Every structure is written in structure tokens, then in C-alpha cells.
Amino acid sequence: MASASISTSSFSSKSTTFFIFVCIMFLSVSVAESVPVNETRFKPLEELKNRRVRAHLKKINKPSVKTIQEPLYERPKGHNSSDEILERIQLWTESNEFCPDGTIPIRRTTEKDILRANSLKRFGRKIRRVRRDTMNGGHEHAVGFVNGNRYYGAKANMNVWSPRVTEPYEFSLSQLWVISGSFGHDLNTIEAGWQVSPELYGDGYPRFFTYWTTDAYQETGCYNLLCSGFVQTNNRIAIGAAIYPRSSYKGRQFDIGVMIWKDPKHGHWWLQFGSGMLIGYWPSFLFSHLQKHASMIQFGGEIVNSRSRGHHTYTQMGSGHFASEGYGKAAYFRNLQVVDWGNSLVPLSNPHLLADHPNCYSIKAGKNNVWGNYIYYGGPGRNGGCP
């Protein structure tokens, strides 16, 4: 096993405002470090806490690593992958410095990152949600979805905003979900998109993110590369990096492409970002139900409403404006597609629409010859109709 190599290359001052990197080999294989009870029984509680935080940081930032060969894969039919364009959609790439071949960029986790979470166990994980069709744990959604069939992936373009998040333990995100199992203890999900999470990143910038779970957010899975699972193979895109540029109200609209699909050859779930950039894959063995196929696909937004002040949060979803305002004002997903049993991309037809609290965050769907199937979604949170 080789040690992780730390990149000491300098970055532009603008880039380092948002990102500190280490470059490691393709696959992190780490063993959780624990503090022996007999060594800490008489230690002060604060010292024990600090030791555990440092041990967790060591595991995340300097894991044992091994190189792997990227497995063969087959992209869905109907996808044009002839040209993989390195777009300037992440601030750190403005320095024109990338990790060497055989390594990947990883956002360096700091002690402050961990201490912002309520607990070490919670760090890098979503608060558990029991059901998708009710508000639970403060999570609210405005999504378009399809179910009742077998799905092998999804693709869409989503525009990027900087929604306001008003409480430290809240977040606002826009993503696509690949789902299987029941909304109980055996829920399997794969998720990717952009999010604003002050707790996780310490700022209010929209960042490219991934998530997965195989037991309804209880014990398995995490954001980005904060636990073993997702295998990144791309050295030019950093998961967790700030996205730039962003959309502006009544101004320029900027969107990113995301595709997740199940490779028919090996069964792994692959992630593509931007214009054909393969990021990596979730191995099939991580999952139970998703070893076969997905039973639901969702597109849209999610926020956490903590009600910490006794009323609905002011946290925004999408642009912070309702779906009815339309282009240039509301957030959107366009070119909604799913991957069918024949590994072909097909348009999403007649999506179901669900807004947990439509006076806070709304959604509407449409179709035209340029965008195909699309949705507008989002809202301001607390307002006259959303107490």
C-alpha cells in the first residue's frame, strides 16, 4: 500500500479562497481508527474528543491508497460522448493546475469542518428521512418524479444559483435522485447535483456534490468522498468544489449537466458531470436494491427547515423565487431524461410533481422543442403564505 501524496502546488488567491486540495491515488481504502478504552478512561472529555477528531481527519486526509484500473463501461445510447470538454465550472481550475495522472483532487477536511457538525458520527451525512412523501426531519422538497417502471439512470441540466441558507445546520440543494427500495430502512439512493451547506463547507457557495445510502440514511453512505464507497477516476474535477459562474436574477443563466447510469457490462453506477466528463462510479456491491435497477427517478430541490426560531426558515430553494416566475427568475431543470432497460436515454414523459409545502417552495412542468421536458421549481421559504 502506498502513502497518499499531498499536492503542494500553489493556487491562485481566488481559488484558494474556496478550496484546499490533496491529491491521492484513485481509490481510498481506509480502516477506521479508534481510541483504545484503556488509554482514555481517565482522560478529560475534551481531550478525548480532540483525539477522535484528529484520528478522523487523518483517516479522511491521508488514507491508505491503492491504484486501480478504470473498469470498462458502456455509455447510454443517445448520448454524444465524442468530445469531453474541460469547462471552467469550478473555481480551483482557474489556476490551470491539476493533480498528476493516477491521482485525484480531494477537498482537504479541517478540524473546523468536523466541529461544525453536531457530532463526529453525523459529519458528512444527511439527517435521516423516513418517508419521501411527507415532511420529515425538517426536509422539504419540490420535485418532479417518475416511478412504476425499471430505470437504469437519469440525465438533466440544472442551473446553478447561490440560495440563502439562514441557519448553520440547514442546507439548500438541487439534484437528481436514483432510488430503489422502500422509504423505510432499506432505501437505496444515489444523488448528485449542487448544494449550499454552511455546516459541511463553512461558506455559502454552491458546490458540486454526491451522496449515497443503502439503508435510508441511517448508517451507510456520505457526501462526496468523506467515506469509502464512491470511486473517483477523474483528476480534473473536484467533488465538493465551488461552482462558477452562477445564475443571476433576470440575468445570465448558467447550468451544469449531470448523468448517472448503470453500466450494463459490470453493473456499476457511473457519474458524468458537465460536457461528458466521467467522474467515477459507485460499485454495484454497495447496494441491495440498486444492484438490479432503480424504481424511481427524481429531479428538483430540497432544503432543511429547522424552525429554530419557532417559524418556517427563510432558507431559499433554487433561485429563491417561485416556479411561476419562469425563465431568468426561477430555477430550472431541462432536458429531463431516463435510461431504459436497453441502455438508451429516453425523454421523461409526464412527470409527477410534488411540493411538500407549495406556499414555501413550488414546482411546475413544461415541454418545448429546445428544452424537451423541463421543470421550474423553488421559492423563498418563509413569507406571508408560509408562516
TrEMBL record:
UniProt xrefs under InterPro entries: Glutamic_endopeptidase, Neprosin, Neprosin_propep
Signal peptide start-end:
1-32
Q: Does the keyword rRNA processing apply?
A: no
What residues does the Neprosin PEP catalytic domain cover? 133-387
What keywords were assigned to this record?
A: Signal
Q: Which domain of life is it from?
A: Eukaryota
Q: Which PANTHER family match?
A: OS06G0474500 PROTEIN, PROTEIN, PUTATIVE (DUF239)-RELATED-RELATED
Q: What is this protein called?
A: Neprosin PEP catalytic domain-containing protein
Species in which this protein is naturally found = Ambrosia artemisiifolia
